[in-house]
What we know:
Layout: E1 2-5, E2 16-18, H1 21-29, E3 35-38, H2 45-48, H3 51-65, E4 72-75, H4 80-105
Parallel strand pairs: 1-2, 1-3, 3-4
Helix pairs in contact: 1-3, 3-4
Amino acid sequence: MKLYLDDTRPTPDGWTRAYTAQETIEYLMTGQVVELSLDHDLGIEEIVGNGYMVLQWIEQEVFLRRFKAPSVMAVHSANGPATERMLLAIESIRRMAEGETAAEGRTSE
């Protein structure tokens, strides 16, 4: 599944739409999301959250539970500072996932 988190932009063809951070996390928990595109600003943050909150959840789950993050993660936000923060989170998630893969591939001899 390709998942698109946004409150205003049109959903690209072939993508499933989510409007809130919690809805996105619920889709991620199914293990079926392979591509993820996130907006940051979704409306009233206290109610709907934001795209960075989704990445924080993924990062925590990868670290604590070896959650398999989507293979493709992108940011399509117009909020420059938030985009930078989100891209750093994606890089952190990738590094953690690669570190687990490298560690799992080692054998003790």
